[in-house]
Amino acid sequence: MKRICFLIPDGVGIRNYLYSDILRDLKSEGFELSVWHGLDPKIIDQSQLRIGFRPESFPLATFKEDAVTQLFRESTCYARLLRGQEITSNPTILSNWHNGKFSFQKKMLIKLSEWLGRTFRKYENILQTEKLLVSRLRGSQAYKVYKKQLSEIKPDVLFCTHQRMPAATPAMLAASDLGIKTVTAIFSWDNLPKARLAIRPDYYLVWSEYMAKELQFFYPEIKEDQIRVTGTPQFDFYTKTDDIMSREEFAAEFGLDPEKKWVCFSGDDAKTSPHDSSYLRDVAEALADQQDIQLIFRQVPVETTARYSKVLEDFPKVVHINPFWEKGKYWQQFFPYPKDVSHLVNLAYHCATVINIGSTMALDFALFDHPGLFLKYDHEENQEWKTETVYRFQHFKSMDGLDAVGWINSKDEILTKVRLAIDHPDKVATDRQVWLKKITVDPRVQPASNRILQELKNLI
């Protein structure tokens, strides 16, 4: 019997793998399954409730990288960002580099990484430096521990649930050196231009042909036969009618009026949208007199509502629905409950439209053929953060030539665009289905879990 081990280095892989059909489908095909993780054990309990069985679990020890290893990693990241900026002619690529408040030591590491990155920004030099990084990782304590543990787990395939976590690198490297086939999935539609492809497995699972080409564009050393187009499990949930509540049930649970049209304002994190509370206020003011519309607010799960509190106080008719997440002190302690999966499905199914700053939620809503609305105006003329910059990010190139979302270009347009999305959805984001199918394999045709299952079977 063949064994597949899912390496889940942090909370990113929980929803897509521990709550989806993938583990259940693999088990039904006769595979032995293991989960190798450093997560809160409560997450495995929640997975068992969702999928009906408890996979074998192994603890993943964590190790701190030494300064030289960090320097190799960060300098190659900066060099790849510089190269990415050049080959795309898109200066926003560099916005993915470090910014924020750091310790003195971290600031010095970043500055040194920038200097080194500039010196070997040529593609051939980047590859050589990454070889040095791999060589150094083979001498690390993490590599030795993971190699010993993998010898005990004995998987035929090690599947890392996302590609950007540095802590997974020595584990995947140890697996490759033991002759274990290695696989990773690109987690999000905006990840590849960010130069955070931390691991180098045998195979890469991507959302679409568009992403497959993007992967080879930024990483030409990856061969075409290493890439598999599967879609992403995060959209599979929208094909499950069992998760959909009746409008009356959903309204009763969250204090909504089932007779009104529901509009969802989906919050972003503070880095993506630092003026998000002002945008919520604008939308709440614009819709305040609309007797047939009810505004729902859902903040990004990893943040509180602190910066929105005054808006929610001033507009008590806005229905705030808190994400069903466990929040912790550290990132590994944040995780969604299965209820949050069905909650998102119901929001996308029952709401007429979603409003935000460039969120993936527009794709979620498109799965039920509901148009998304992106806010595209600034609050102050000379403010440092600008929506113009946001929508020049590389992943929005996927929209070129398409009427993918409705654009709200000023506060005065909010009511008009929302009414149009509600009353005439066929006239807003008319290419939303084309855009959706460009970004990902359509789960309504074949769920990603089925495609991933088949690819893993083929590998073994």
TrEMBL record:
Pfam families xref list: MGDG_synth
Superkingdom field? Bacteria
The record places domain Diacylglycerol glucosyltransferase N-terminal at 97-233
- GO BP of this protein: glycolipid biosynthetic process
Where in the sequence is the signal peptide annotated? none
**Molecular function in Gene Ontology:** hexosyltransferase activity
Q: Name one GO cellular component term.
A: membrane
Q: What is the name listed in the Swiss-Prot or TrEMBL entry for this protein?
A: Diacylglycerol glucosyltransferase N-terminal domain-containing protein
Which lineage? Bacteria, Pseudomonadati, Bacteroidota, Cytophagia, Cytophagales
